[in-house]
Specification:
three-stranded mixed beta sheet, 2 helices, 3 strands
Amino acid sequence: MVIVIVCGKQVTRVVGCYAPQDGCGEEEKDRFYNALRQEMAVKGPKQFLTVASDFNGHIGEGIDGYEGIHGGFSVGVRNCEGRRLLECKELYI
């Protein structure tokens, strides 16, 4: 779901989504992340973008190679959905 809010000259896009769960197939997960990337690419240069989602992932407490993305303030063990989330670089631009 996408909501576009225009307030004066400020345009804000809010993307609300629910990622496939752990038991879903890789093809479904790939479709979700591809659709999310496409939606995020629609954002104009002066628009503010917010992604509000349940990504169904655990990024875990270890930074291991995700410096600059992972702040090291999480808990637990990373799962494959957490890895996908950390690798979705479009979220960090």
